[in-house]
Each structure stands twice: as C-alpha cells, then as structure tokens.
C-alpha cells in the first residue's frame, strides 16, 4: 500500500476496522471511485453517466464484499491466535497444577495416615475414658453397698471388677507385708548363725 495517498478506510456496519487494516483492495476502491467521479464529470450524456454509476456501484459492491471477507478472516485469525495463546496458558497451568499435585501426593498420604492414627487414638482414649468412668461408678456402687450391708459376705463374680480390684489390692498389700516379715526373719537367722560361728 502506498502511504503517500490518503485512503479512506471503508468500514461496513458490524465490522470494526482501523487504519492498520487498510489493504490493496481499499486503495483500488478509492482509486476507482476517484477515476469514475472525474470521468463522470467530463461526460454530459445522462445515459453514459448512468452506465458509469451502475458500473461503479457494482464494482464497489464486489470490492467491499472482498474487503469484508478479508477483514473477517483477519479478525478470525486474531481470535484464533488469542484462543491458542489462552489454551497454551491453560495447558501450562494444568501441567503445573498436576506437577504440584504429584509432588503433594506423598505428603497427602502421610497426612491421611497421621489423621487415621489420631482418629484411632481418639477412639481408644474415648473408650478408655468410658471404661474408667464405668469402673468408678461400679466401685462407688460397691462401696455404697458394703456400707449399707456390712455383715453380708461379698461374693465376687466376673461383674464385680471394682470390688475385685479393691480386694486384690488388699491381698497384695498383705502379701508384701508377709514378704517383709519373712525377709526380717531370714536376716535374724543369718545374724544368729554368724554369732554361733564366732563363739565356736
């Protein structure tokens, strides 16, 4: 396109164009319109002028259709290029997210394992608390019953765990007491043996 000429940008409705969109077709259209306008002025015959006008109008319709087609194709290429750029960006983002997910997978597995362990500990702790609470209640019931019935002989069964614990504590205490007495007796016997051996 020769930039020395001032070319008017032909812009149909619903089709945006700028001076950067000027093509050779715009130059041809402008030149033909200029030539036909000058030629029309030099002719006096109305029939010839009408023929020139018809030719100019038909030529303009064909050229403008071509210009519109070229412009639409150009706009479509721009949109496609922009869409391809966006697709590449999205694809790169997806690849990056996928890599991050793959990298975070071991950490996620570890967190899931730790979470499962915490849940298991919570469940065990809850069960232990419930068991201790039940034992305390049973123990208190047993103490209350013994206070109300001091002369009644207690018979322990599998359901009398708190009472059994108390009784076993008493028995263990007595056993330790007898062990202590036994040790003291053994020590006394050893002392007597030493004294006798010295006398002999």
From TrEMBL:
Belongs to the CENP-U/AME1 family. It comes from the Eukaryota. This is Centromere protein U. Its main location: nucleus. It comes from Helopsaltes ochotensis. One of its GO terms (cellular component) is chromosome, centromeric region. Residues 73-148 form a coiled coil. Keywords: Centromere, Chromosome, Coiled coil, Nucleus. The gene is Cenpu. InterPro entries: CENP-U (IPR025214). It is found in: Chromosome, Centromere; Nucleus.
